Amino acid sequence: MSPETVVLKLGGSVVTEKDRPETVDTAALQRAVAAVAESDAALVVVHGGGSFGHHHADEHGVSTTTGTRDPEGALAIHDAMVELNRAVVEALQAAGVAALPVQPLSAAARDEGGALSLATEPVERLLDEGFVPVLHGDVIAHEGEGVTVLSGDELVVALAPAVDADRVGLCSTVPGVLDDAGSVVDRVDAFADVADAVGDSDATDVTGGMAGKVRALLALGVPAQIFGPDALGAFLAGEAPGTTIAGGPE
Amino acid sequence: MSPETVVLKLGGSVVTEKDRPETVDTAALQRAVAAVAESDAALVVVHGGGSFGHHHADEHGVSTTTGTRDPEGALAIHDAMVELNRAVVEALQAAGVAALPVQPLSAAARDEGGALSLATEPVERLLDEGFVPVLHGDVIAHEGEGVTVLSGDELVVALAPAVDADRVGLCSTVPGVLDDAGSVVDRVDAFADVADAVGDSDATDVTGGMAGKVRALLALGVPAQIFGPDALGAFLAGEAPGTTIAGGPE
Fold first, then answer.
1. Element (H, E) at B118
2. Cα–Cα distances in Å, from A26 out to A17, A45, A87?
3. How far apart are CA A169 and CA B190, in angstroms?
4. Could you give the domains of chain A?
5. pLDDT tens for residues A208-226?
6. ipTM of the complex
7. Would you tell me how many other CB atoms lie within 10 Å of the CB of residue A206?
8. Which residue of B101, B103, B109 is in closest CB contact with A125?
9. Which end of chain A is more exposed for a tag (fewer CB within 10 A), N or C?
10. Per the CB < 8 Å rule, is B129 touching A108?
11. Alpha helices, DSSP H, located in chain B
12. pTM confidence score
């Protein structure tokens, strides 16, 4: 039986220190890496920006919809993300995981309406050859805007169908989708189940908020989990920790 | 009138010191950058590996056809190329060129027969948004082989039609295709014109040799020049220095 294919998102805030710009949370990264190294799955890893990407993006006024044509600004945001990516790739390789970097600036673009086009063949081929592609939030060319931000959540949504993922996991700083009372919701079958708790969102909001994550994962058609760092090992072992997002048509 | 679109290859040996591993030839790079900064063309820049990529590839036994599945070896080759790429991008930005890095590992793959698939939409979009994409020889996933080397010459051949290039220039350490007497051949219309001088080559040899370059450029259908570093400014100004490879069907 071939191993299952899993797309794993490591939230930027999970692996970086929130309060110190451009600082890897080494202990948290090592715990995540140790869990990944135990897994038999064919893995695609995506990570967010955490304290690396966000302040550069803010400084240059760049979001997923508002871009820049300043090459130095674009490079500063990209470089910060690449630096974090390098830390993740090297930690994974040191733990025996065949990680290799994949950078969205080289592989993705947006059209005028903001729709994402991601070249997934390199990721699929790396996966087939036994590597673990490690992607990250980045800046990408955007028609009419220069470059805009591509979020890790957008990457997950684009990659899962391309690699025919069996499961998707979003490892976040919270242990799942929380209800009004602050308890983890076990399962979400439709956005209406949690709309009151997570707030409103339109279908294109996949830039980091919980509402956008839930909407995007519901539309994926692949079982997804949202869970906290302590549950990463359980998720990779095949369990369903945190909140199950049922997927399939709403 | 919109500016012409030009794919420019800077040979690895043009911008690195041949006899010192992983050393940029800063003076040569600065001269090339100064010429590029004068150009009004919409430019895609490709550079080879020179003293950066080649010894790592040799050390790990990796070529365009023989691969590796060793993630540390793959990353070592990739890193060496990225380091050179970064030097080129930063020198261009410092001269006012809107350069951004594009890394083939993230954008390209080979099938079992070695045929290259390169995602060119990110390059096209960056170009349309006013940036100068700067690509480099790299390692890429190769079906059944792990990762193999992708040469700068292969990139030129794949990119020129994708960006609808008006002209292609290969800036090499030699001033053009040389005949038996060591003189620059003015124009090549068919491989037979220079076969005696450049040696034999099959159509898939685009890994750096002059015979392979001539064959590949002849098949492109876009006018191409092979010239030395001193002629870069003239080429970018619209002249036809060195050897003209006529292109079009043989």
1. strand B116-118
2. 9, 17, 9
3. 56
4. 5-245 (3.40.1160.10)
5. 578 888 888 998 889 999 9
6. 0.93
7. 25
8. B109
9. N
10. no
11. 12-15, 26-37, 50-59, 71-94, 104-107, 121-128, 152-162, 195-198, 210-218, 232-236
12. 0.95
